[in-house]
Design a protein that fits this description.
Helices cover 38% and strands 11% of the residues. With 325 residues, the chain is an alpha/beta fold. Strands 3-4-5-6-7-8-9 form a 7-stranded parallel beta sheet, covered by helices on one side. The chain has a two-stranded antiparallel sheet with strand order 1-2. The chain starts with a strand and ends in a 5-residue tail after the last helix.
Length: 325
């Protein structure tokens, strides 16, 4: 597996990371814990060293799973987790709460340090300087190594970076969700910050396995309330799958591999973290690192995307309300 550096921070990870959320929540029922451990350890055996979780996933159970799976491999891997999205009062990045969450996460992850700690969502009630300062203190105490922000806008990123250098930004980004290109990616490039796209295969849509007849369980699958996953939107957005499939067939690849290779080709500091909850998904995703898209390939994709108008917001109103541009 190739390695990539997340900006100028010195944090080096596998070129493809693993989003662990789906093993516990998000797009279906939670996996059996032994099955989940097997998938995570298989990812490591295949070259992935970068694993992403959060207290909010489950909640809490995903950190426990990741901690149990990676405990024997702790010194060989990079673990990222997040604070601030859940509490008795909702989004909460009060300094005391950050410290409370970190202590709980350390126990669930069965470790004495967190490699990369993200603020899961920006808290409008707490100055980002206070958040960055708290994480800076945790870094000085040895409980955290690197600082990140999730779903943050360029201004917030710049302000935080002054207080404590930001190593990575984790925003939703894919071939059909390109908002970060306007301001956030340029800010990352200017400041020397890595970018970690979540949802890099369109929360499953870019696999080509979702159709207008696909049913999403309202109890276990967030896509049941995402506007981009209504039957009407799925039908309207299918041309992007057709575009990826066309390129994939020519490259002897899969639509998933082309979607991930496209992201990897955008910037050298981009490290996607597709959600992989089955071993067969690991194999498909990992092969994307070896797919080389030529200038002509990228131009073909760009030209095809220019003809597509995507239908439906990327998230529901509640989650969009927690995200900055």
């Amino acid at each position: 597996m190739q390695k990539r550096k997340l900006g100028n921070s010195g944090l080096e990870v596998s070129a493809l990371g693993m989003g662990c959320m789906n093993l516990s929540s998000g797009t279906g029922k939670a996996a059996d814990i032994n099955d989940g451990i097997k998938v995570i350890r298989s990812a490591y055996e295949k070259g992935i060293t970068f694993f992403d979780t959060a207290e909010a996933y489950g909640p809490y159970t995903n950190e426990e799973l990741v901690g149990k799976a990676l405990k024997p491999l702790r010194k060989e891997v990079i673990i990222a987790t997040k604070f601030g999205m859940i509490s008795d009062t909702g989004v909460n990045s009060q300094p005391a709460h950050i410290r409370k969450v970190v202590e709980a996460s350390l126990k669930r992850l069965q470790t004495d340090y967190i490699d990369l700690l993200y603020q899961h969502r920006v808290d409008p009630n707490i100055p980002i300087e206070d958040v960055a300062g708290t994480v800076k203190d945790l870094i000085q105490e040895g409980k955290v190594k690197y600082f990140g922000l999730s779903e943050a806008g360029a201004e917030t990123i710049s302000r935080a970076h002054i207080v404590q250098p930001v190593s990575a930004i984790q925003n939703q980004y894919s071939i059909w969700t390109r908002e970060p290109e306007a301001e956030v990616l340029p800010a990352c490039e200017e400041l020397g910050i890595g970018f970690v796209p979540w949802g890099p295969i369109g929360t499953g849509f870019l696999t080509g396995k979702i159709t207008a007849d696909t049913k999403f369980d309202s109890d276990t699958d967030l896509r049941a309330v995402f506007p981009r996953f209504t039957p009407e939107a799925i039908r309207a957005n299918m041309p992007v799958v057709e575009l990826l499939t066309k390129v994939a067939n020519r490259k002897n690849a899969t639509p998933v591999q082309i979607a991930l290779a496209w992201l990897l080709a955008q910037k050298s500091f981009i490290v996607p973290i597709p959600g992989m909850d089955k071993i067969e998904y690991l194999d498909d995703n990992i092969k994307s690192v070896a797919v080389e898209l030529s200038v002509n390939d990228l131009q073909e994709i760009e030209g095809g995307l220019a003809t597509i108008t995507f239908k439906g917001a990327r998230l529901n109103e509640d989650l969009l309300g927690l995200s900055e541009k």
